[in-house]
Amino acid sequence: MNDETSKSGGEPIVRLDKVNKYFGSLHVLKDIDLEVTPGEVVVIIGASGSGKSTLIRCINGLEEFQQGALEVDGNPLLPHGKATKTLQKIRTEVGMVFQQFNLFPHLSVLDNVTLAPMKVRGLSREDAIKIAERLLDRVGIGDQAQKYPSQLSGGQQQRVALARALAMEPRLMLFDEPTSALDPEMIGEVLDAMRELANEGMTMLVVTHEMGFAREVADRVIFIHKGEIAEEGPPETIFDSPQAEPTRQFLSRVL
Ligand code: ADP
Ligand code: MG
């Protein structure tokens, strides 16, 4: 749980105002209003197909939306994918970890982590290596730097993906089911790394089915049902006394 006093608060890092997204005639996101303030950890839960990934992907411009307003750290993303300059800026400020680790298979762990800081942030190889070594240590795999992704377990690969995202010094981290592709015995090590990040004050938006993690780490839980925010609140409220019927039904299936 984040320490309330450590929060910087202030202007929201993420602001969505009546965002609507369609895939053809399929209305996938419906009037989504969402604000995430600096230091906040927001967990998004909901059934498969409810629009969680699409929401996350709209926030870093991987998907266009059709109506509404979306801002990341004061940079507007416009409907229909307009404003490409802003998009570049947003992508350097937002880190993302996916279900599939998406590491570069032909690069060592170290090179996976140093690539973007050198290419995008213009760091020297020496500086990028310093940062990468520190981050790999921090996620507990400092001794794996010279290996290739295929030589690592799933849990280790996902921690490389986390270190790689952090190497860009993001203002916001997005996670889309980061543990769903992992064997059960590896889920804990990835959740631990995420918990630590949350404790350090990172602003995080996390889609997960790990309800224990949500209860423990989230400042706020959002339940999405058929493309709408059906209910949101502190984890105790959502898990112990959900108000909306769809939330109750969902939780009775997963808890
Ligand atoms: P979740 O992550 O909650 O499981 P998604 O955001 O992936 O849900 O999907 C929401 C809905 O949008 C689903 O009905 C899904 O089939 C549909 N969808 C997702 N991506 C696409 C796409 N690229 N083209 C068409 N439909 C899509
Ligand atoms: Mg999804």
TrEMBL record:
GO terms of molecular function: ABC-type amino acid transporter activity; ATP binding; ATP hydrolysis activity
The keyword Lyase is annotated on this UniProt entry: no
InterPro entries: AAA+_ATPase, ABC_ATPase_HisP-typ, ABC_transporter-like_ATP-bd, ABC_transporter-like_CS, MetN_ABC_transporter-like, P-loop_NTPase
Topology versus the membrane: Peripheral membrane protein
Pfam families: ABC_tran (PF00005)
Subcellular location, record wording: Cell inner membrane
Domain ABC transporter: 14-251
Alphabetical keyword list: Amino-acid transport, ATP-binding, Cell membrane, Membrane, Nucleotide-binding, Transport
CDD domains: ABC_HisP_GlnQ
GO (cellular component) term, any one: plasma membrane
Top-rank lineage group of the source organism: Bacteria
UniProt family annotation: Belongs to the ABC transporter superfamily.
Protein name, UniProt field: Glutamate transport ATP-binding protein
